[in-house]
Amino acid sequence: MEKKEDELVGKTAENKKVVLKNYVNGTPIETDMEVRKHGNPIKLEAPKASVLVKNLYLSCDPYMRGRMQDFHKSYVPPFSPGSAIEGFGVSKVVDSDDPNFKRGDLVTGLTSWEEYSVIRNTGQLRIIQQDDGIPLSYHVGLLGMPGFTAYAGFYEVCAPKKGEYVYVSAAAGAVGQLVGQLAKLHGCYVVGSAGTSQKVEILKNKLGFDEAFNYKEELDLEATLARYFAQGIDIYFDNVGGPMLDAALGNMRVHGRVAVCGMVSQNSRTDTQSFRNMFGLISKRITIKGFLQSDFLHLYSRFLEDITGYYKQGKIVYIENMNDGLESAATAFVGLFSGKNVGKQVIRVASE
Ligand code: NAP
To answer: What pTM, to 2 d.p., does this model score?
Structure first.
């Protein structure tokens, strides 16, 4: 029997897409995006030196908020309103005019929020060696950019030592859940925070954190952290920034390290906030370091090997929040900024 991809090549498809309507001010809302048809049906053929893929899973990532504004605060260029939103995905090659890819290959990398995409920059795609023990969608989560961020950020930026006290914010999310589990495997004491009691339960009972708390129920974050870390914090893996970062700085131990991974609490703010605990950087000789996962790409193959091994040995688990269909994409994306996602937020677009 012919492969499904062979049957598709040369046909046309309506090709629904999710577009950003206009640049966004403040926190994104669902109506900032909409599902549209492409003007004309597209022909399912790869143009010169490109691949044409069918998108299976799309990733919702907080950094994409930065691409929804035209002034340049993000480290990646803005989206074009009216065009399909760009993001990481898992896709299947329908047709290829690139010798490195063939019909039926499963790939992961940057694609667009639509049913079929032409990918011209094929150098950024990675062929997935399919492994029945690992869900395909994990290639935008555990084995994708967020998982790699956790791995590089924890081992390379935090420089952890066994027995150290580690605090992780947004701990039930795509990055945080892996940071906490890696810290436990490393022999650290780990506390996580998240914004619902369900997430706190998951952190303690499913992800193996020593302690967890709901930051939305706490009036004084600095006092809360002092309660959970009587000895102070050696490592703070910061996913949120703002007042939580200030509260953590107030609880750091001498020679503590703060890895500034993200500032999801600040993504949509334009005002400035003051920090009370900066002086401690000097007296406690604290290192605070921002990082981008892309600085560490030379470690990607080691990461894949290590994390695949941990997962298969049952040493780590991974939680996903799966939404179905491009119609659900806007809801899924805006949910990141109110904490609706429990685990890595993914959109399932099609089955293989
Ligand atoms: P995520 O944690 O899966 O989703 C975002 C979470 O942030 C939400 O579920 C919510 O959880 C929390 N949140 C939303 N608004 C908040 C607010 N105002 N205050 C506090 N918490 C808030 O996202 P992720 O993909 O793992 O990303 C986590 C962070 O890492 C983000 O800041 C992201 O930008 C950053 N990141 C950085 C890099 C890098 O290379 N440096 C790479 C990937 C990601 P709660 O229930 O806890 O509120």
So the answer is: 0.97
Is any atom of ligand 1 closer than 6 Å to the C-beta of 341? yes
Could you give the number of structural domains in the chain?
2
Instruction: Please compute, for residue 333, the number of CA atoms within 13 A of its CA located in the half-sphere on the CB side.
Output: 32
pLDDT at 74: 59
Kindly state whether residue 98 falls inside one of the protein's structural domains.
yes
| Residue 235 CA, ligand 1 centroid: distance in Å | 18
- Are 231 and 161 within one domain? yes
Residue-range definition of the domain harbouring residue 165: 145-294
Does 136 lie in the same domain as 23?
yes
> Can you give the pLDDT at residue 73?
60
* Dist CA 96 CA 98 (whole Å): 5
Residue 22 maps to which CATH number? 3.90.180.10
- Sorted by sequence, the CB contacts under 8 Å of residue 180 that are 6+ apart come out as 166, 168, 171, 190, 192, 203, 207, 208, 209
Residue 209 Cα to ligand 1 midpoint, Å, equals 18
Distance 61 CA to ligand 1 centre (A): 8
What residue ranges of the chain have pLDDT lower than 70? 1-2, 72-74
Cα–Cα distance between 16 and 329 in angstroms, integer? 12
> Are 289 and 186 found together in one domain?
yes
